[in-house]
Design a protein that fits this description.
Blueprint (H helix, E strand, L loop, with lengths): L1 H15 L4 H20 L7 H12 L4 H21 L5 H45 L6 E2 L2 E8 L10 E8 L2 E9 L7 H14 L6 H19 L28 E8 L5 E7 L5 E4 L2 E4 L21 E4 L5 E5 L1 H4 L11 H11 L6 H15 L7 E8 L6
Antiparallel strand pairs: 1-2, 2-11, 3-4, 4-5, 5-6, 6-9, 7-8, 7-10, 10-11
Helix pairs in contact: 2-3, 2-4, 3-4, 3-5, 4-5, 6-7, 9-10
Length: about 400
């Protein structure tokens, strides 16, 4: 999935672009401004404080050596000004001592800042590795299925949140899960880890989608039992990580809406099991329609079912594209409060397009159109498009 890579690239581009060029120019500009003001104003005016300001600004823009160079330049500029005016007195010496002191303190603070930033970069690198190991980037194709998708967490500082996806080639065909955990943001990632790890293991072993869903149900029920308080009230333990309490669901409300897909070995048909999730959309011959399935309770609530709902089997045409998504897409609101009409927007995109869309083209459209519709998203968002690959590309 290119979105994790693009999120990382966007974050790293932001880090590389800080500080902006105009901010880098401020310290030398203040030094030059001090010289100019001293030359165009009467001798009774003194602008030495601007030199101190240039050194302080350098803390946030330059490395320690640059801060020291800025302080040295400020001291040299002050000495040069006073020497040209032949006015080297006690005030000049006092200001030079002040500038030297400010320079030394600023260099020390800059060293502390650099060490803190280096520590933060290492922590971020570890966090990014863990997140990408959990939600691995999607390849362009798995077996006979072409894939494209994008993912955006509600927390801008995180790569993952409460939505999930996984694609797995298995002896039974390519299997896919797209889901949405109760709750959002970082607090929901524990449940995401449980569902994805269970899916990756059980998808290779369970012969049918209902049995695969049963296995995930059991894992979530074990999680729910483990997070209950010793008194048995079902309350989640108090938070000790500093994350907002509302991001994680209470123990008795630990569930995941999900849709599970299983493509046949030649991708001529797909079996669909919907566990309380958003309905799949299919684009066939430039017509967008809903894949009607039997809805059921979400994963994690299987103990309330008398039996697993059956999986729907749908025959796929060579150009059919399935679109799985979370409610973060359809519940995104524009400034007027209107929800994002995914099906209608996809149909309009297909009508305006010159040919049958591709999975990557659809995902690019959804990503950019959703950002246009709702610039500020309040929920995690995932959308994945899947299409049978042409025989010559398998």
């Amino acid at each position: 999935m290119g979105t994790e890579r693009s999120a990382l690239e966007h974050r790293r581009a932001q880090e590389r672009s800080w500080p902006p060029p105009w901010l880098r120019l401020l310290p030398p500009a203040l030094i030059v401004l001090t010289v100019v003001l001293d030359q165009v104003t009467p001798p009774r005016y003194f602008f030495g404080s601007l030199l101190s300001a240039s050194i302080v600004l350098a803390i946030f823009t330059y490395p320690p050596l640059g801060v020291g160079a800025t302080g040295a330049a400020g001291c040299a500029a002050l000495a040069l000004i006073e020497a040209v005016e032949d006015y080297v007195g006690p005030q000049t010496v006092t200001v030079l001592i002040q500038l030297g002191t400010v320079t030394l303190l600023s260099v020390a603070l800059c060293v502390v800042r650099y060490r803190a930033e280096d520590r933060l970069r290492r922590v971020r690198a570890v966090a990014e590795a863990v997140q990408l190991a959990l939600l691995r980037p999607l390849p362009a194709q798995v077996g006979p299925v072409r894939i494209a998708g994008f993912y955006r967490a509600a927390d801008d500082e995180a790569l993952i949140g409460g939505d999930l996806y996984s694609v797995r080639p298995t002896p039974f065909g390519v299997r896919v899960i797209v889901g949405d955990v109760k709750g959002k943001g970082v607090g929901a990632t524990r449940t995401v880890a449980t569902v994805i790890s269970t899916f990756r293991e059980a998808a290779l072993l369970q012969p049918t989608l209902p049995q695969l869903a049963d296995r995930i149900d059991v894992a979530l029920q074990l999680d729910r039992d483990n997070v209950k308080s010793p008194s048995g009230t079902g309350a989640a333990p108090p938070h000790t990580t500093g994350e907002p309490a509302e991001t994680a669901a209470p123990a008795d409300e630990l569930f995941v809406t999900a849709v599970l897909l299983e493509f046949s070995p030649e991708a001529r048909e797909v079996r669909v099991l919907n566990r309380g999730h958003q309905p799949l959309l299919v684009i066939s011959s430039c017509e967008t329609s809903v894949v009607r399935t039997e809805h059921s309770l979400p994963l994690g609530m299987g103990d309330l079912l008398t039996e697993q709902p059956p999986a729907l089997t749908r025959v796929l045409g060579p150009d059919d594209i399935l679109v799985a998504y979370s409610d973060g897409v359809t519940e995104a609101r524009d400034p007027a409060g209107a929800f994002y009409p995914l099906r209608e927007q996809l149909q309009a995109h297909c009508d305006a397009g010159p040919r049958q869309p591709s999975p990557s083209g659809l995902i690019d459209f959804i990503q950019h159109d959703l950002a246009r519709w709702a610039p500020a998203l309040a929920d995690d968002v995932v959308a994945i498009a899947l299409q049978p690959a042409p025989p010559d590309r398998r």
